[in-house]
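Table S2 (continued). Query chain:
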Amino acid sequence: MADNVTSLFRSTAAHSPSMAALAREGGDGTGPVDFCIPCNPYFPTPAMMDTMASRLKDIITYYPSSADTITAELCNLLQLPPQAVAMGNGSTELITWIDHLLVRESLAIPVPTFGRWTDQPMETGKRVDMFPLQESSGFALDLAQYAEFIRTRGTRVAVICNPNNPDGGFLHKHALVQFMDAMADLDLIVIDESFLEFADAEQEPSVVQEAMIRPNVIVLRSLGKNFGLHGIRFGYMVANPSLAGRVRSMLPKWNLNAFAEYVVFMLKEHGAEYAQSLHQVRRDRLDMASQLAALPGLTVYPSQGNFLFVRLPVGAEGTVVRDRMLTEHRILVRECGNKIGSSSRFLRLVVRPQVDVRRLVSGLEQVLYGTRRGAAVPELAQGTSYSSGTAAVDRLVGQTNGAGMQDLAAMAVGGGGMGGGVGMPMPVAQPMAVAAAAPMGVAASRGPAASMGTAASMGAGMPMPAQMPAPAPMPAPAPMPTPPPAPAPFAPPSGPTPPGVPARGGLTAAQVRGMTAPAPGAPQELSQAPATGWPNAQSWPNAAGMGQAG
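Corresponding output:
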């Protein structure tokens, strides 16, 4: 697999190869430990899997029921009116139809976020207004600033993911209701709650009830992520009957497959197991965040999803870390360099059981700090705290200390000289190692010491004065002028990149995410959300995912 990792990632239209492709490449038919795809690892239970396996022949042989029949069963489970619900072949199918039917000219979305919210409208010629989430504020979304951005741009559709993907940022229900009130004149507001059932910061966080009574609000929900069944492809949206009906009327009669039908009809018997699985994911999230935060230089951002957003140490190249984790440790991670508003310094890591997390942490320790197969990241003195949002530019800046001169950083570490005098013995009294190590090495080489080195190189083959045998004492040479002090070696800035600093290399403002380190005085520890609002183990969670079904 080692030789084909890069080609696997380059040949896929998605951010990562499918697990099937990785399993085929592995040779033994098994895939890696998956920290990439945000799936519930505790549901379905092994017993449920065995039951589905026993019915496999019937499931794949016969047509499923119509989407209306499957939707009615899901609504009965979640206590929602079927007229207000449309089920899709994954939430991506619903995003596609929302764009085609309800987005006329422009859509606003905070970035980084789920890629289909930026890509889908652009593919149909819409203007996408991207509101950059700032690293200096922990990627938290300020709704007041977002509303002002929408007004300034004149955007007609607003999207909010709660929790957001990839950072797991969370917004409380009352704040979202206020936002919907303030934006009531927009064509559409979409609240994507695909990961909300993993949140525990609020007992009833969903706005589905608000969506059903408002003329311009849609709530999007995922089932594959919550139920640990991405391959089945099913999700749903909730809105007032008019909006839901418009989308539902465009969906094929059999857009949901027989696996989806089987799972939906078996869920009513497994509410307790599902609630327990959510509880366990939330506990694992706290434990995993604690273990990752102990790694030197690694920053972990607070999350209410079933994943954690982490920033690699200064100088780390995410694609290198990703490839080495896969080839050397059989662990798949999500490198976020292709997400708009992010860079290759960031990974999204899915919450998994503790035994897998220990393996992840061990692998990261070897890749980031070990030397067994060569360090994945250079020493801190070779990098900068600047992050352009583009991995290739980050590498160039890291290699040149931001000075735009190739190989200067490597020379600074190796002490190599510049010019034709490489390898020539220098006069003992005039060492040049310090001057060569300075970022301004070209300017330093123009001093008297460099002139002497140049003269020596011109007289190739002539013995140096210190080595020349003389029959008579030579007159003392004229004292050499004292060379100017060499500039101090370059040291990377210790603080964050100031906000508003233009990007190097002609990058656009959309590629600059802001600061690359927490703001001075910002809390460094991950605050734990209160573990409240567990679903009653004896009943199925309602559409908000946190309460009780009657």
